[in-house]
């Protein structure tokens, strides 16, 4: 999908202030195309669904792994 990366960057930039479908419309995508992009981003674990007042999709935050070191 050519719009996937562009949509992901726009979603991050909107910071949850724009509805996911409205963001797609601003980019020139129809509702079906927007839902397809959202489905692909969800399957790649780049975004997650969160009950929110305006936008229900947010980029996942990177979690730092704690290294297990044995101090013997």
How would you describe this protein?
A two-stranded antiparallel sheet has the order 1-2. The chain is mainly alpha-helical. A hairpin with a 7-residue loop joins strand 1 and strand 2. The mean pLDDT is 86. The chain has three helices and two strands; from the N terminus they run H-H-H-E-E.
Low-confidence stretches: none
Largest sheet features: 2 strands, antiparallel
Instruction: State Rg.
Output: 15 Å
Strand-residue proportion = 5-15%
- Strands side by side in the biggest sheet: 1-2
**H/E order of the elements?**
HHHEE
Mean pLDDT, to the nearest integer, reads 86
- Count of separate DSSP helical elements: 3
Helix/strand class: mainly alpha
Topology, number of strands: 2
Helix content: 40-55%
Offer a few descriptive terms.
72 residues; mainly alpha; two-stranded antiparallel ribbon
Brief characterization of the structure:
It contains three helices and two strands, in the order αααββ.
